[in-house]
Amino acid sequence: MHSDLAQQKKILRNEARERRAALAAACPDFAARIADQVFAFEIPAGSIVSSYMALEGEADPKLLADALAIRGHEICFPRVHQKAQPLHFHTAVPGEHFVKSAFGVLEPRSDWPLATPQVLLVPLLAFDRNGCRLGYGGGFYDRTLAHLRAKATITAIGIAFAGLEVPAVPHDASDQKLDMLVTERNVRRFPVI
């Protein structure tokens, strides 16, 4: 990655983390608000949907994923299996517990059933009006979306506090765009560019 782009992203990540902490404190019912948005968008019946286990202060998709499960969607979760590779996805095993990864994220165990999602709920630090997202810097979701999109139609839905919108997210050709975004305020669809 070009060093100027990397530096721009680093600065924006630091600013977004600070802003996100304030937004999380101001919106303690975020998870319930986005779960209420489940009827504002259509996911094809029977789709496998990838959720994630939110970090403290992160936009939490748990109640939205629960609402999607009630509507008949299978929910799976991402796991980092190797550095610089696409994520693997697994369905949870009832009665089993998630494990903490080297990155401090709760993940499924490697022996849980594998899944291939058609819809991904994607965490982020910032987004813009064109559907560009700023992730955490590991590139896992960009690699994963590129890998999955090379094989099938995939819908990437960002999960974020509305206040994380910025005028423009610095990006290059390796950065995968979002198709939609769910915030505590609304659901947005992004134009195909």
Overview of the molecule:
This protein is of the alpha/beta class and 193 residues long. The protein has a single domain, classed as NagB/RpiA/CoA transferase-like (Rossmann fold). 25% of the residues lie in helices and 19% in strands. The protein contains four helices and eleven strands. The protein has helices at residues 3-26, 30-35, 62-70, 140-149, and strands at residues 48-50, 74-79, 88-91, 99-100, 106-107, 119-123, 126-127, 133-134, 155-159, 180-182, 187-189. A seven-stranded mixed beta sheet has the order 3-2-1-6-9-10-11. A hairpin with a 4-residue loop joins β10 and β11. The longest helix is centred in the N-terminal third of the chain and has 24 residues, at 3-26. The chain starts with a helix and ends with a strand. The mean pLDDT is 94.
